[in-house]
Amino acid sequence: MRAVRYLLLAGLVGAAVSAHADPVTYKLDPGHTMVLFTWNHFGFSNPTANLGLGDGTLVFDEKNPAKSSVEVTLPLANLDTHVSALDGHLKKPDFFDADKFPTVTFKSTKVQAEGAGKYKVTGDLTVHGVTKPVVLDAKLNKSGEHPMLKKQAIGFDATATIKRSDFGVGAYVPNVSDEIKIHITTEGTVQ
After folding, report:
1. Which residues contact 117 (CB under 8 A, 6 or more apart)?
2. Cα(111)–Cα(61) distance, rounded to whole angstroms?
3. Which helix (H) or strand (E) covers residue 12, if one does?
4. What are phi and psi of 110, to 5 degrees?
5. What does pTM read for this prediction?
6. Distance of alpha carbon 136 from alpha carbon 123, whole angstroms
7. Among residues of the chain, what percentage have pLDDT more than 70?
8. pLDDT below 70 — which residues of the chain?
9. DSSP of 141-190
């Protein structure tokens, strides 16, 4: 009887371990996701804006990161610089042209493990109707049960640098920097 219980318990533990070996799909949480971008303004300051998350899905395979992926939609309606006049200006045709191009999207094409919880996430970034490849340097913050939601959860930070003129958003370059620094922090849960 003891041997049977041991085998059943070992089978359950083995099933739990193998469940984490497969890709796990997470729904990204807009309330705990920030997509921040920073630029230099005439050399005087470095303003930051948050695009916020509309919708996002992350598939993470810890054993085989190449099977991982991420896809997000960032509505420009959520753009927030904490200065309402600047929010409005950035949505106009000389910048994002939000009426014509209401979202920014990112869809990964490749994920590579870099060791120590770090990953290179290559994907297609679409801004202002222009799609270009971008590489995110991502770091796994934590994976495990969320203490409040009691669901499997995951969190990452990621950074990248792009040139906005590559996406047709080149107003006032070089006085307002062409280089845009991006910092993303996100978490998601299994639904």
Report:
1. 139, 140
2. 10
3. helix 2-21
4. -165, 140
5. 0.87
6. 8
7. 89
8. 1-21
9. EEEEE-TTT-SEEEEEEEEEEEEGGGGT--TTTTTB-SEEEEEEEEEEE-
